[in-house]
Amino acid sequence: MDFLLDSEYFTVKKNGLSQFQTMLAYLGGSAFQTVVDNPVTAYRQLVQQYAKNLKGGIVDPKVASKEAQAIFIKSPIGASFSGLVPRLVGVGFKRVPKFGILLGISYFIGEDGEVGYLAAAGASILSAPFINPIRMIEKQQRAYFKQTGFEKPITDILRESAAKNFTPLLRGTVPLMGHSLASAVLGLVGQPRIQKYIKDELGSKTHLSGFFTGFIASAAVSPIYVIVTNPLSRLEVIMQTSKIDGKSISVLEACKEMIEDSKRFGLRGMFRGQGIGIAKAIFSLTMFHQGRIWLIERFKYHNIRNGSLIPSANGHASL
Predict the structure, then answer these.
(1) Nearest to 308, CA basis, from 15, 3, 2, 107
(2) Cβ atoms within 10 Å, residue 159
(3) How many C-beta atoms surround the C-beta of residue 162 within 10 A?
């Protein structure tokens, strides 16, 4: 982490930002996305979690959806904001390692402001152990909403985990690596490139705003993203919502549960929560990039005002 203390990290580059400002833009976009998409995130988890009833039997996806809806009708505020605190804390604990590794690899291999697939792959694998505990806590908070009507306190989750040397906080790390890889490749790399293409091809002809070109790009990427990640998300939910003080569920056991689900209910069982997942992905991805782009523009304006960046005649900025 010595490069974080290097003056180069705070030096404005050719893309108009310093590495530090780029990192802040990614973190700010992530925080904005986290707040606005939390109700959808909570609902999707409950739809996937309620694949099994309290006796452990697999239920029809329609029944699971109705149970999730009942939770939101009974406790709309509590359900909508359940898990938000660890998610916001996770913007630091989860995103700093992920974005730090992502932008670090991008910087060292010579990518100037354009994050590539190699950096995305490296970040998704290396950051998973840092990200997983926060995701585990988030899911545990709303895992027992049906039984208690309240989210589980973080202190209780940590106390139960401490009794097992905190190893339960690593449940679901393997599927998370795959999930994170798809997220980085399609969301962090694919969406901006598609948005740039749409803006170049349609923006000048139709005067579409940055928000709408971003929304179209997110809509193009999200179905692919959800098809790839929905089964992985199911594995995470299965592994991370079981009782901490009980027996953990392995990846193989979680896969067997999904196979049994698909045998009984076909693709509806395999892809529980996919419809809401696509809507969430489009919304979340758009909000993340709009927040990130807004901050990037503010930082560039700041750099121009303090003389770190000189706007050129064609409207672009230079050092």
Answers:
(1) 15
(2) 12
(3) 12
Nearest one of 194, 193, 198 to 209, comparing CA atoms: 198
Query: Where does the pLDDT of residue 310 fall: very low under 50, low under 70, confident under 90, or very high at 90 and above?
Result: low
- Per DSSP, the three-state class of 52 is strand
CA atoms within a 13 Å half-sphere pointing along the CA-CB vector of 278: 10
CA–CA gap between residue 317 and residue 310 (Å, rounded): 5
Any idea which of 10-14, 70-74, 221-225, 248-252 has the lowest mean pLDDT? 221-225
List the Cα angle 106/111/116 in 5-degree steps: 65
Each domain of the chain, given as residue ranges in start order, spans 18-318
Candidates 218, 239, 251, 127; CA nearest to 180 is 127
> Per the confidence metrics, is the pTM higher than 0.85?
no
* Percent helix, percent strand, percent coil in the chain, to nearest 5: 75, 0, 25
Distance, in Å, from the CA atom of 211 to the CA atom of 292, rounded to the nearest integer, reads 12
Which region, left, alpha or beta, applies to residue 267 given φ > 0 means left and ψ of -120 to 50 means alpha? alpha
For 317, the 3-state DSSP assignment is strand
CATH match for 18-318 among 3.30.70.141, 3.40.50.720, 1.50.40.10, 2.60.40.3880: 1.50.40.10
Q: What are phi and psi of 12, to 5 degrees?
A: -70, 130
Q: Which of 123, 116, 144, 115 is nearest to 49 (CA)?
A: 144
